Amino acid sequence: MTIRKVDFPSHQPVLIRSLIEKLPFVAGVWIDCTFGAGGYTRALLDAGAQKVIGIDRDPSTLAHAATLKAKYGSKFELCEANFSMLELVAKQFKLKQISGIVFDVGVSSMQIDEAGRGFSFQRDGPLDMRMSQNGVTAADIVNNVSEADLADIIYYYGEDRAARVIAKAIIKERTTQEINSTEHLSNLINGAIGRSNYKSNKSVNPSTRTFQALRIAVNNELEELYLALIAAEKILDEGAILAVVSFHSLEDRIIKKFIKSRSTNGSGQSRYLPQLKSNSPTFRELFNKVLRPTDEEILANPRARSAKLRIATRLRPTGGRGNSVKIEFPKVNYKLGIRQ
Prior knowledge:
CATH superfamily of the largest domain: Vaccinia Virus protein VP39
Number of domains: 2
Largest sheet: 8 strands, mixed
CATH class of the largest domain: Alpha Beta
Strand order of the largest sheet: 1-4-3-2-5-6-8-7
Radius of gyration: 21 Å
Order of helices and strands: EHEHEHEHEHHHHHHHEHEHE
Shape: globular
């Protein structure tokens, strides 16, 4: 994917108040890796940032960006790109010193609320789920991958114990008709779970985990997040801030493991193996406990309930860490075109 610098002729993001209040400073140049509706960018500029570079792969963010561009002028720029390309974006804008990088990962409220994007089973629409509006759709996966691959996607990306039951039901359904709408898929899953002995939280729709799994697969979200964190580590200087908001356990595990592995001395190897040269820590986590939304935020936005904020500061770069400490996360290499 090529990086395209956007030229230009109210959503309040989760935990934004906590972020601004907890930051030791807001000044200089910041990168908002998940621009969306511009909530974090606006808050950072209003709090004292001299400039914010927004990154987003979703072309629908242009309308929000135009509004901010009109208000803040040269203090704001938007780049249409995946945030895994963070290092290239920094080079394109010739950023010599970055004060902080913020991520609000996962699907945005505006994407969920637009039925035509196919992210939510609560509104009937095409089974799409593409953040970039390009490439493989959720319908392509549901209607073409093997039963084994489909079960793996649902199990590893949705952490759903009923993955095989759901995959089998999807395979059976698609032998008679394609599954192209969110309502069709959701009804199918609800029926399949109802016929099984699978016990789940009754307050959670049985489709929730499958929809999450398909979205992660379509957008390669876990690998994108890991690569972006590696890039942030490379481009941040001493004292700069890394702040990440996540909404489900798969994302948070990657973020937590990344920061923890970068906040300690040592190579992370077994004590029973010959000792290798240790790595100096590259980050220091600012708070011992993860930051969560207040009751007031949850009341105003129920989707905020699962949000977690982690903040770390970059230590003196030594050049010895880079991506040498790898973080494991689920990776399903599915294949299209294997209809059954």
